[in-house]
Amino acid sequence: MVDRTKLNHSFAVAALRASSRRVLHLIESEIGRQGGAATIYNDQLEMSGSRRVYLPALRELHALGLVDVVRLQRRHVCMPSNRWRGIGSLREATIIAGLAREARSAPRPVPAVEQVNHETTPQPTRMHPAP
Questions:
Q1: Of 67, 80, 93, 114, which cross-links 11 as Cys (Cβ 3.0–4.6 Å)?
Q2: Which of 66, 52, 39, 67 is nearest to 101 (CA)?
Q3: How far apart are CA 131 and CA 16, in angstroms?
Q4: Residues 58/103, Cβ–Cβ less than 8 Å
Q5: CA torsion, points 1, 25, 84, 56, in degrees to nearest 10?
Q6: Could you list the pLDDT tens digit for every one of the 131 residues in the chain?
């Protein structure tokens, strides 16, 4: 991918969770095997954990600038990136990683159904009076 020494000592890698490190290792090995960009299927990613594990990890890796990820149907295209060099502190990297992991993991709230009071609800009027 890039110079491993600089990458291993970067703030972006220091902020990674263990699951993200596993996914990064898988992506790096596939990039090395396939060349500049790697097509990784969901089945391959499930070797590093369930969908609840690898999807947040991919978002985290992309947000931290370690890889560029394009999500397609049943697969992901991953390319090496140097955007991680722009992260200036461990605190910044931790905030970015946390926001990326939470981006779509929280369940969406269900809209509350309002109680309808039929006594005060205005009734529709007829256009023509009944004969």
A1: 93
A2: 52
A3: 76
A4: no
A5: 140
A6: 456 777 888 999 999 999 999 999 999 999 999 988 999 999 999 988 888 899 999 999 999 999 999 998 899 999 999 999 999 999 999 999 999 988 874 334 444 444 445 555 555 555 555 55
State whether the Cα torsion 55-61-67-70 is positive or negative. positive
38 φ, ψ (degrees, to nearest 5):
-125, 135
Q: Is the dihedral of CA 83, 85, 87, 93 positive or negative?
A: positive
| The one-letter amino acid at 52 | R
Could you give phi then psi for residue 122, rounded to 5 degrees?
A: -65, 135
Beta bridge partners of 79: 68
Q: Give all domains of the chain, ordered by start, each with its CATH number.
A: 4-102 (1.10.10)
CB 69 within 8 A of CB 48: no
In whole angstroms, what is the distance from residue 53 CA to residue 51 CA? 5
How large is the angle between the packed helices 51-63 and 90-102, nearest 10 degrees? 140
